[in-house]
Task: inverse folding
């Protein structure tokens, strides 16, 4: 009953507190007050760039999804029953339709809100997600929903943006599968024309590789629907477009997992396939000096999210020689391109609370969003005059980021620190700001990589006598994060820039977006650091 009483009071507080400009608050899953960004395009970006479509989230589940979830074994992860109880408790005093949504429905609602607001900007965001964030499925979903949206029909926008959204030969079939699942027939003509144009662009190798035999919607099904014309398509329809001996999968399948097969397969493997099969190649007897040149050469145009390289590193860490481990890190650096530089002292605070450690990128994946946040923090720190990483949960552990040291070694150190900070709260943010205010520590830029479920005021403290000035809520146990930022600016550095980086697919912000020099970002890739630098530059020019 105490929790009910508390969230009733805080819902009232969210709706009555004076804000300039006004902000509409809601209770997040921690019972604190959070805010949605005002721009539907930004809300879509936060959700779509930090969650693969339809994959389980910490607080959102699809009860119809029968896939096993590897992360379920994580002690930090809530059971479905606990999520249901939490949702029911919050909805009793602050009903929100989005709390009941599955992960797929959550992104779909963000897409539709964005389309209602600005259809062309939404399709532009889909193209950005596909090309800059390297997200594949969600852009196809955006394209399909746009084609079925009343504001888009007859505008030509679908065909205009489709070439930048459909980049691989299997993606028209992905779109068809989603169209039939959500809308059925009739299929919008603009969508059929976009698929036809795309299929006509792909060569015989691409069409053969991505035939999707055994899937509900096959590439040949799309061909029969839209009738594209090209020699490659003609070969596919006649059954002549075979991948026998042409793709690495076909080569290994035909010859078995042995040295000869893998050596032949390497010649046609893409960069991502090489990353994922390093362990198999080593086990088959492929020498590292045969792997490294091709692996490193493919990194620049490999279009991989940074965490993919750490996944590859972890997969072979126990058996690969140092030269290969170094090469994987070299690939990461090569894939990043020229990252922006952040002047002065930079602190990257990375969320390692239970919800961040209990969320993985996919149902069968093991990559935690907390690890992604830690990696992003290390990268940000390495691109600063003086960079630091703060790993937070119940407590806070910090480490100085060293430019000349291994990225992965520093990331592994952060992962070890995360094991002993406690995962029940986000109290580490309070510890950081309290120390920075008391000790007058000068920071020029502060990144906060988090699922933002602490929310404005949802930061649960452990000793309220320490933060009377910032406490509010039931018994003063909750800490006003925005007030912490404001106080730091008043007493230490009025020009500090704060970047709030969403890493887990939610649309909540840690503080209201209109706070001066406070920026809201989202993403799993290095692009968010470039965007942060662009926002900083734009603000300086405006000033």
Result:
């Amino acid at each position: 009953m105490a929790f009910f009483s508390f969230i009733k009071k805080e819902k009232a507080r969210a709706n009555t507190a004076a804000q300039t400009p006004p902000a509409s608050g809601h209770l997040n899953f921690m019972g604190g007050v959070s805010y949605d960004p005002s721009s539907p395009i930004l809300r879509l970006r936060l959700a779509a760039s930090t969650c693969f479509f339809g994959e389980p989230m910490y607080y959102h589940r699809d009860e119809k999804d029968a896939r096993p979830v590897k992360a379920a074994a994580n002690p930090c992860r809530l059971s479905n029953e606990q999520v249901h109880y939490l949702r029911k408790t919050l909805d009793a005093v602050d009903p929100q339709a989005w709390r009941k949504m599955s992960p797929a429905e959550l992104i779909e609602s963000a897409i539709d809100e964005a389309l209602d607001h600005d259809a062309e900007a939404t399709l532009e965001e889909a193209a950005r997600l596909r090309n800059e964030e390297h997200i594949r499925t969600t852009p196809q979903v955006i394209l399909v929903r746009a084609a079925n949206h009343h504001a888009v029909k007859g505008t030509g926008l679908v065909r205009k943006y489709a070439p930048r959204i459909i980049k691989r030969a299997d993606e028209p079939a992905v779109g068809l599968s989603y169209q039939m699942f959500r809308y059925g027939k009739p299929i919008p003509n603009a969508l059929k024309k976009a698929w036809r144009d795309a299929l006509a662009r792909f060569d015989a190798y691409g069409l053969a590789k991505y035939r999707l035999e055994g899937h509900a919607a096959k590439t040949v099904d799309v061909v029969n629907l839209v009738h594209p014309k090209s020699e490659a398509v003609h070969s596919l329809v006649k059954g002549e477009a075979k991948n026998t001996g042409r793709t690495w999968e076909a080569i290994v399948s035909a010859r078995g997992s042995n040295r000869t097969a893998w050596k032949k397969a390497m010649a046609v493997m893409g960069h991502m396939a090489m990353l994922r099969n390093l362990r198999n190649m080593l086990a088959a007897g492929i020498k590292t000096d045969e792997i490294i040149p091709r692996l490193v050469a493919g990194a620049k145009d490999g279009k991989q999210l940074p965490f993919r390289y750490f996944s590859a590193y972890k997969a072979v860490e126990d058996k690969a020689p140092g030269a290969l481990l170094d090469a994987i890190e070299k690939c990461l650096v090569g894939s990043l391109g020229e990252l922006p530089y952040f002047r002065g002292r930079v602190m990257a605070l990375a969320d390692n609370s239970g919800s961040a450690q209990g969320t993985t990128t996919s149902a069968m994946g093991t990559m935690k969003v907390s690890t992604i946040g830690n990696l992003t923090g290390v990268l940000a720190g390495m691109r600063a005059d003086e960079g630091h990483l703060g790993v937070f949960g119940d407590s806070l552990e910090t480490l100085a980021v060293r430019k000349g040291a291994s990225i992965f070694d520093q990331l592994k150190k952060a992962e070890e620190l995360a094991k002993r900070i406690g995962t029940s709260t986000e109290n580490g943010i309070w510890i950081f700001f309290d120390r920075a205010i008391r000790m007058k520590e000068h920071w020029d830029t502060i990144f906060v990589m988090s699922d933002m479920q602490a929310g404005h005021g949802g930061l649960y403290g452990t000793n309220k006598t320490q933060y009377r000035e910032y406490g509010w809520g039931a018994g003063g146990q909750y800490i006003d994060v925005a007030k912490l930022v404001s106080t730091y600016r008043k007493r230490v550095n009025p020009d500090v820039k704060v970047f709030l980086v969403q890493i887990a697919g939610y649309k909540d912000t840690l503080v209201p977006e209109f706070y001066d020099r406070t920026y809201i970002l989202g993403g799993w890739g290095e692009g968010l650091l470039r965007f942060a630098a662009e926002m900083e530059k734009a603000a300086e020019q405006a000033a």
Q: What stands out?
A: The chain is about 50% helix and 10% strand. The chain has three domains: 105-132+135-237, 248-335, 340-542. The longest strand covers residues 342-351.
